[in-house]
Amino acid sequence: MNTDTIITLYEEICENHTKFLGDDVSLPKLFKNDKKNQFNKRALVLVYLYSKIGIAVSKEELTIFIRKFYPKTNDVQDGRHLSRQSGWNILSGGRNDDNDLSLKKDEYSLISIKTPYPGNVSKHRKVGFKDKDFNKLKEKYNYGCATCGSKEGKHNLLNSSVITKLTKGHMDPEKELIPGNIIPQCDECNRAYQDKFVFNNSGRVISQTKDRKMLNVLNENISDKDKIIKMRNLLS
Ligand SMILES: [Zn+2]
């Protein structure tokens, strides 16, 4: 895919976004800066998925594409962010989204650029928590990642090759991203823990979301055999 194609596809997405999606879905900027000499990674992922709309795209395929622009990329997480946080209608196999595509783990598919993600989008979007509020929260944490302590703008303690940027991390990934459920986290921590853990407000892991799901299964009104099957599925 050459630069012109990327720009054309992005413009198509942009048009549809304005027309059909508006505030419900957030559109990543195409360029990283005003010089317009470097594409934004997340926009590239969106463009690539759009070029294969309705088709399963593996994370590996996305990574190969992104490496043409960012050679050091080792793991592209943007597919997940684009749906859960930005609201794009991207289904993923790993999340067990209901779909007719039988997506495998680590496969994504952009379904439409005219409709938002059908799941619990609001649950994962930045509803009611503006940048101003986030700045206040960061100040409370002395501009450090709640989990690893890396300071914003300084070299990351877990990966010294990157400069720390703090993002809104869920304390409980199964609840909305609203005040009381947000801690500042660096990208390294946010990515490493994915949605598998629940944190306290000091950024420490207090449980696994899986454990809670297991407890829920135990309390369900179903046969022991069904409980065992469900629990085995959760563990696999
Ligand atoms: Zn961190």
Core attributes:
single chain; 236 residues; alpha+beta; 3-stranded antiparallel β-sheet; two-stranded antiparallel sheet; 9 helices; binds zinc ion
Offer a concise description of the structure:
By secondary structure, the protein is an alpha+beta fold. 38% of the residues lie in helices and 14% in strands.
Task: Explain the layout of strands and helices.
Elements (H helix, E strand, L loop, with lengths): L2 H19 L19 H11 L5 E2 H9 L10 H7 L3 E5 L14 E10 L4 H4 L6 H10 L25 E5 L11 E5 H7 L3 E3 L5 E4 H11 L4 H12 L1
Antiparallel strand pairs: 1-3, 2-3, 4-5, 6-7
Helix pairs in contact: 1-2, 8-9
This protein binds zinc ion.
How would you characterize this protein structure?
The chain has helices at residues 3-21, 41-51, 59-67, 78-84, 121-124, 131-140, 187-193, 209-219, 224-235, and strands at 57-58, 88-92, 107-116, 166-170, 182-186, 197-199, 205-208. It folds into two domains: 3-116, no CATH class; 126-203, no CATH class. The chain has nine helices and seven strands; from the N terminus they run H-H-E-H-H-E-E-H-H-E-E-H-E-E-H-H. The protein is globular and about 60 Å long. Helix 1 (3-21) crosses helix 2 and helix 8 (209-219) packs antiparallel against helix 9 (224-235). Helix content is 38%, strand content 14%. Strands 1-3-2 form a three-stranded antiparallel beta sheet. The protein has a two-stranded antiparallel ribbon with strand order 4-5. It is α+β, with helices and mostly antiparallel strands. Residues 122-126 have low confidence and may be disordered. A hairpin with a 5-residue loop joins strand 6 and strand 7 (205-208). The structure holds zinc ion (ZN). Zinc ion (ZN) binds next to strand 5 and helix 7.
